Amino acid sequence: MQNLILGLNNSERDSLITLKHWLEDNAEKIQKVLPMDKHPMELVQALSKAMSNMCKVSLLAEGSLAFGSPTAESYLPEGYNGPCAVEDINGNLIATLPNRLEAEKVARYCITPDGGYGSTVVKVATASQVNYNSFESWLMR
């Protein structure tokens, strides 16, 4: 396991840490749906299903064009209000903000012609990744 972790890049390590925190925060819900007497692969499948049920993609905003409009989507778990990363559709970081509200403001602005980023996604981040305190501080960068 240690060799696997050492082979990860910073982004992959951050994602693994985020997953660890998510698992810890949702341990009670997960235990209710995981068949603990099953083969490890069945546990992985059940965990994947549980995570999908708890973390739905939601559309925050859509551009004004009828077809092919940029979208702002949230990949945050229901009720989550911690640090959030806003990325473009290629996974490039646009900003990391301290909470959902500020991150969603950035994501919505980015899909406008003035924003110029095209489609965006909002994802869970860690507090150490926060590089802007608000939409306004990001806009004035």
Average pLDDT figure: 78
Give the strand tally: 5
Strand content: 15-25%
Q: Indicate the percent of residues in helices.
A: 40-55%
The sequence of SSEs as H and E is HHHHEEEEHEH
Structural classification: alpha+beta
Count of helices?
A: 6
The largest sheet, given as strand count, sense and whether it forms a barrel, is: 5 strands, mixed
Rg (CA only): 17 Å
Identify low-pLDDT runs: 1-5
Q: How would you describe the overall organization of this protein?
A:
The chain is an alpha+beta fold and 141 residues long. Helix content is 42%, strand content 17%. The chain has helices at 2-6, 10-25, 27-33, 40-54, 100-110, 135-139; strands at 58-62, 71-74, 84-88, 93-97, 120-124. The protein has a 5-stranded mixed β-sheet with strand order 1-2-5-3-4, with helices on one face. A hairpin with an 8-residue loop joins β1 (58-62) and β2 (71-74).
Concise summary:
The chain is an alpha+beta fold and 141 residues long. Helices cover 42% and strands 17% of the residues.
Layout of strands and helices, then pairs:
Blueprint: H1 2-6, H2 10-25, H3 27-33, H4 40-54, E1 58-62, E2 71-74, E3 84-88, E4 93-97, H5 100-110, E5 120-124, H6 135-139
Parallel strand pairs: 2-5
Antiparallel strand pairs: 1-2, 3-4, 3-5
Name its key features.
141 residues, 5-stranded mixed β-sheet, single chain, alpha+beta, disordered N terminus
